[in-house]
Amino acid sequence: MTAQDMRAWRIHGYGGPEVLALERVPVPVPGPGELLLRVAAASVNPIDWKMRSGHLRDVFPLAFPRVLGRDCAGTVVAVGEGVTGAAPGAAAAGVADPAKDGTHAEYAILPAVQAAPLPAGLAPAAAACLCVSGLSAYVPLVEDAGVAAGMRVLVHGGAGGVGGLAIQIARHLGAEVLATCGAGNRDYCVALGAARAIDYAAGDFVAAAGPCDVVLDTVGGAVHARSLAALRPGGVLVALAAAPVPAGAARADVTVIRSRIRPTRERLARLFDWAVRGIVAPQIRATFRFEDLPEAYRMSETGHARGKLIVALA
Fold this sequence. Notes:
The chain contains nine helices and 16 strands. By secondary structure, it is of the alpha/beta class. It folds into two domains: 5-131 and 263-312, Alpha-Beta Complex (Quinone Oxidoreductase, Chain A, domain 1); 133-258, 3-Layer(aba) Sandwich (Rossmann fold), CATH 3.40.50.720. The strands form three sheets. Strands 3, 5, 6, 7, 8, 15 and 16 form a seven-stranded mixed beta sheet that branches. Helix 3 packs parallel to helix 4.
């Protein structure tokens, strides 16, 4: 392997974890407005295996071969034309362009506007937890729903990578936080700041949660439709892209927002600052060697991972 080559996990077609192939490929060159990072840590998100399997081909059609992976942290190696605020040798983290090769490689390209410097004291693995998942909690709660002190917020999937951060963010904003989770994760969600953790398999979460001002839906489908009943009049149901929502799921006296997760330097910088200040604590469920990345995909696909799955390269 030369200085111009790297190892990358690529797919040459849609399929299961078996289509992931560890290959030697040229190190990419940053174009205008882009950063080249030597990757120290990357996360595995549900969107990765959904893209790999073809479930999202209508939203993110892939040209093959393709390197998957949406976010990473590492060291800036080179910058493209027009980039300011980043220089070789600096630590940074951010989100890749989904239309291009991703971060499950030894080197990755990030748009400079979708990356932020790592503050002192924030490890690459922790930063990788806060990119896609952190933004997926921050944007819906802070910007879309406007969560504020005194509100009652229900977070679905409170033990997951997004849900665990959402509990902490909503609690920081002064809300009373309720979370749905499996029975084995109730204490975990309470430790993160939930006033009550509701076992989604034990009964109707609407009856258990009572009227809420905001519901964060990370699940979709029937959960989305049922969540409408958990809202007070004037409440907000904010949803991430998940399972299809049943036709006819509506309620005239509440607002339903399909959140659009927009990575920006400013949003990432705030999340990184919150982590350093102890406002949010990234939750790492498991760390995998780069060579074992397919195992991280398999764990993510079970849908029951607590916290984040991280692939460490350094």
